[in-house]
Amino acid sequence: MKIGMIFECGPEGADKKVCEYLARQLVPNLEISSIPLDTKPKLVADCGEVTAILLSEGCERVLIIWDLFPSWNKEVPCRKEDREQIFESLKQAGVSSSNVYLICIREELEAWLIADGQALSKVISNYTNPHQIKKIKDVKKPETVSNPKKELIRIFKQHTGIKYNDKDHAEKIASVLDWTKLKKRSPSFARFFTKLTDN
Predict the structure, then answer these.
(1) At a CB cut-off of 8 Å and minimum separation 6, what does 120 contact?
(2) What CA dihedral angle connects 22, 35, 81 and 73, to 10 degrees?
(3) Cα distance between residue 72 and residue 181, in whole Å
(4) What is the pLDDT of residues 28-59, one digit of tens each?
(5) Entry pTM
(6) Which phi and psi (to 5°) does residue 5 adopt?
(7) Alpha carbons 176 and 51: distance in angstroms, whole number
(8) Of 90, 127, 170, 197, which one has the fewest beta carbons inside 10 Å?
(9) CA–CA gap between residue 2 and residue 14 (Å, rounded)
(10) Each residue of 128-170: pLDDT tens digit?
(11) Could you tell me which residues come within 8 angstroms of residue 142 by beta carbon, excluding any fewer than 6 positions away?
(12) Region of 75 on the Ramachandran plot (φ > 0 left; ψ -120 to 50 alpha; else beta)
């Protein structure tokens, strides 16, 4: 199966790396065509045109993935407004396919990464003495955490003395995540999982 993914990050952004990694683990032999659009405003404005291109190139479905509240954003976000603007962009581009899915991560990608304390412990143990790490607790409702990236920065600093860097650490955490936990705890990941697997 070939799918398209559209992100609001750069070419080496954490959202792209994590989602592509997880998608390939969930669906073996998956072919992915990704288009990173740098920022949320650019994604909202250009996703229709980009979706049309991906569908014309043979993608069976397209996932438009964005953070509700990117760390750089200072305005209060609204998922309803985001969706309306994205649907308008799709409409303007003549895209009416039922194979286009919107996945809004609340508040940002790091909400997925803080859900599984055991995964965090495994990754952090690579940067310090494993015997010195106190067990990191699971976050049962990660999408209710305000500024999950800030929480990851705090956890890394506390246990390793180094700062969490999404480009370096996000995919490493994703590689050891327990999907069963994440599906139960994160509605946006559950939607991502469902739209990839039809399960």
Answers:
(1) 113, 114, 136, 155, 173
(2) 80
(3) 28
(4) 999 999 999 999 999 999 999 999 999 999 99
(5) 0.93
(6) -135, 135
(7) 31
(8) 197
(9) 21
(10) 776 666 689 999 999 999 999 999 999 999 988 899 999 999 9
(11) 111, 112, 114, 115, 148, 185, 186
(12) beta
Would you state the structure tokens that stand for residue 151, as one six-digit string?
A: 């929480």
Residue holding tokens 């479905």? Answer: 61
